[in-house]
From TrEMBL:
It comes from the Bacteria. Belongs to the RAD52 family. Keywords: DNA damage, DNA repair. One of its GO terms (biological process) is double-strand break repair. This is Rad52/22 double-strand break repair protein.
Protein backbone atom coordinates (compact mmCIF):
# COMPACT_ATOMS: atom_id res chain seq x y z
CA UNK A 1 0.00 0.00 0.00
CA UNK A 2 1.55 3.26 -1.13
CA UNK A 3 1.39 6.13 1.29
CA UNK A 4 1.78 9.82 0.47
CA UNK A 5 3.51 12.50 2.52
CA UNK A 6 1.05 15.30 1.67
CA UNK A 7 -1.45 15.26 4.53
CA UNK A 8 -4.51 15.62 2.30
CA UNK A 9 -3.37 14.55 -1.17
CA UNK A 10 -5.36 11.29 -1.30
CA UNK A 11 -8.23 12.63 0.78
CA UNK A 12 -8.92 15.52 -1.58
CA UNK A 13 -8.58 13.65 -4.87
CA UNK A 14 -11.80 13.76 -6.90
CA UNK A 15 -14.37 11.18 -5.93
CA UNK A 16 -14.58 8.50 -8.62
CA UNK A 17 -17.86 7.05 -9.93
CA UNK A 18 -17.23 3.73 -8.20
CA UNK A 19 -16.82 5.53 -4.86
CA UNK A 20 -20.22 7.22 -5.08
CA UNK A 21 -23.62 5.79 -4.36
CA UNK A 22 -26.78 7.65 -5.27
CA UNK A 23 -29.86 7.98 -3.14
CA UNK A 24 -33.31 9.14 -4.10
CA UNK A 25 -33.98 12.26 -2.07
CA UNK A 26 -37.54 12.70 -3.30
CA UNK A 27 -39.91 12.16 -6.19
CA UNK A 28 -41.54 15.28 -7.60
CA UNK A 29 -45.24 15.57 -8.43
CA UNK A 30 -44.26 15.43 -12.11
CA UNK A 31 -42.59 12.06 -11.60
CA UNK A 32 -38.94 13.07 -11.65
CA UNK A 33 -36.53 11.66 -9.09
CA UNK A 34 -34.19 14.04 -7.32
CA UNK A 35 -31.02 12.13 -6.47
CA UNK A 36 -28.00 13.02 -4.33
CA UNK A 37 -24.51 11.51 -4.25
CA UNK A 38 -22.96 10.12 -1.11
CA UNK A 39 -19.87 8.26 -0.05
CA UNK A 40 -20.01 4.83 1.44
CA UNK A 41 -18.25 4.13 4.70
CA UNK A 42 -16.08 1.64 2.79
CA UNK A 43 -14.83 4.50 0.61
CA UNK A 44 -13.96 6.48 3.74
CA UNK A 45 -11.95 3.59 5.19
CA UNK A 46 -10.18 2.86 1.88
CA UNK A 47 -9.18 6.51 1.41
CA UNK A 48 -7.86 6.78 4.99
CA UNK A 49 -5.92 3.53 4.51
CA UNK A 50 -4.39 4.83 1.27
CA UNK A 51 -3.58 8.24 2.75
CA UNK A 52 -2.21 7.33 6.15
CA UNK A 53 -1.78 3.53 6.16
CA UNK A 54 -4.24 1.33 8.04
CA UNK A 55 -2.12 1.53 11.21
CA UNK A 56 -1.97 5.35 11.28
CA UNK A 57 -5.61 6.26 11.77
CA UNK A 58 -8.42 5.24 14.07
CA UNK A 59 -12.00 6.15 14.76
CA UNK A 60 -13.81 6.36 18.05
CA UNK A 61 -17.60 6.26 18.22
CA UNK A 62 -19.53 7.75 21.14
CA UNK A 63 -23.27 7.35 21.51
CA UNK A 64 -25.11 10.55 22.36
CA UNK A 65 -28.80 11.27 22.77
CA UNK A 66 -30.40 10.61 19.40
CA UNK A 67 -27.19 9.79 17.56
CA UNK A 68 -23.45 9.29 17.49
CA UNK A 69 -20.21 11.24 17.50
CA UNK A 70 -17.25 10.00 15.51
CA UNK A 71 -13.72 11.14 16.26
CA UNK A 72 -11.07 10.27 13.70
CA UNK A 73 -7.44 10.58 14.74
CA UNK A 74 -4.67 10.33 12.15
CA UNK A 75 -0.91 10.27 12.37
CA UNK A 76 0.67 12.38 9.66
CA UNK A 77 4.04 10.75 8.98
CA UNK A 78 7.29 12.57 9.60
CA UNK A 79 9.16 14.06 6.68
CA UNK A 80 12.73 15.31 6.41
CA UNK A 81 11.47 18.75 7.45
CA UNK A 82 8.73 17.92 9.99
CA UNK A 83 8.12 15.41 12.78
CA UNK A 84 5.12 13.09 12.80
CA UNK A 85 1.99 14.75 14.16
CA UNK A 86 -1.40 13.52 15.34
CA UNK A 87 -4.55 15.30 14.18
CA UNK A 88 -8.13 14.63 15.27
CA UNK A 89 -11.51 15.75 13.95
CA UNK A 90 -15.01 15.04 15.25
CA UNK A 91 -18.53 15.19 13.85
CA UNK A 92 -21.86 13.58 14.56
CA UNK A 93 -25.03 12.28 13.02
CA UNK A 94 -28.49 11.25 14.11
CA UNK A 95 -29.76 7.70 14.07
CA UNK A 96 -31.10 6.81 10.64
CA UNK A 97 -34.55 5.53 9.76
CA UNK A 98 -33.16 2.30 8.33
CA UNK A 99 -30.66 0.47 10.56
CA UNK A 100 -30.61 3.29 13.16
CA UNK A 101 -27.38 2.28 14.92
CA UNK A 102 -25.30 1.13 11.95
CA UNK A 103 -26.57 3.96 9.77
CA UNK A 104 -26.00 6.61 12.41
CA UNK A 105 -22.45 5.41 13.08
CA UNK A 106 -21.65 5.32 9.34
CA UNK A 107 -23.11 8.77 8.80
CA UNK A 108 -21.10 10.21 11.70
CA UNK A 109 -17.90 8.73 10.29
CA UNK A 110 -18.61 10.04 6.78
CA UNK A 111 -19.38 13.50 8.14
CA UNK A 112 -16.14 13.45 10.12
CA UNK A 113 -14.17 12.39 7.02
CA UNK A 114 -15.44 15.47 5.18
CA UNK A 115 -13.48 17.55 7.69
CA UNK A 116 -10.32 15.94 6.31
CA UNK A 117 -11.40 16.99 2.80
CA UNK A 118 -12.90 13.69 1.68
CA UNK A 119 -15.99 14.17 -0.46
CA UNK A 120 -16.34 17.92 0.05
CA UNK A 121 -16.74 18.39 -3.69
CA UNK A 122 -20.03 16.46 -3.60
CA UNK A 123 -21.65 19.48 -1.94
CA UNK A 124 -20.94 21.46 -5.14
CA UNK A 125 -22.63 19.03 -7.52
CA UNK A 126 -25.58 20.35 -9.52
CA UNK A 127 -29.10 19.35 -8.56
CA UNK A 128 -29.75 16.09 -10.41
CA UNK A 129 -33.17 15.01 -11.59
CA UNK A 130 -33.99 11.78 -13.41
CA UNK A 131 -36.97 11.82 -15.75
CA UNK A 132 -38.57 8.48 -14.90
CA UNK A 133 -41.83 7.21 -13.45
CA UNK A 134 -39.82 4.68 -11.41
CA UNK A 135 -39.32 5.04 -7.66
CA UNK A 136 -35.77 3.75 -7.97
CA UNK A 137 -32.82 4.87 -10.07
CA UNK A 138 -33.00 2.96 -13.39
CA UNK A 139 -29.88 1.27 -14.82
CA UNK A 140 -29.72 3.67 -17.77
CA UNK A 141 -29.51 6.59 -15.34
CA UNK A 142 -26.64 5.01 -13.39
CA UNK A 143 -24.58 4.98 -16.59
CA UNK A 144 -25.34 8.66 -17.15
CA UNK A 145 -24.50 9.50 -13.53
CA UNK A 146 -21.08 7.87 -13.97
CA UNK A 147 -20.45 9.97 -17.09
CA UNK A 148 -21.54 13.12 -15.24
CA UNK A 149 -19.10 12.42 -12.38
CA UNK A 150 -16.25 11.88 -14.85
CA UNK A 151 -17.07 15.19 -16.58
CA UNK A 152 -17.21 17.05 -13.27
CA UNK A 153 -13.85 15.54 -12.29
CA UNK A 154 -12.07 16.35 -15.56
CA UNK A 155 -13.55 19.85 -15.77
CA UNK A 156 -15.50 19.26 -18.97
CA UNK A 157 -18.94 19.61 -17.37
CA UNK A 158 -20.44 22.82 -18.73
CA UNK A 159 -24.00 22.48 -17.48
CA UNK A 160 -25.77 24.66 -14.99
CA UNK A 161 -27.06 24.24 -11.49
CA UNK A 162 -29.47 21.49 -12.55
CA UNK A 163 -29.11 18.35 -14.65
CA UNK A 164 -32.06 16.35 -15.98
CA UNK A 165 -31.24 12.83 -17.12
CA UNK A 166 -33.54 11.19 -19.66
CA UNK A 167 -33.62 7.71 -21.16
CA UNK A 168 -33.35 9.33 -24.61
CA UNK A 169 -29.85 10.54 -23.68
CA UNK A 170 -28.68 6.95 -23.33
CA UNK A 171 -26.04 6.00 -25.87
CA UNK A 172 -26.81 2.92 -27.92
Amino acid sequence: MEQTTNALEVMTQPIQPEEIEWRVQMQTKTGKLIVVPYLTNRTVMERFDRQFGWQNWQNEITEIQGGFLCKITVTVPATDATPAVQLAKMDGASRTDIEPVKGGISDAMKRCAVQFGLGRSLYNYPKIMIDTPDKFIPDWANQQLDVLVKKINDGSYRGGDMVVLKVSYQKA
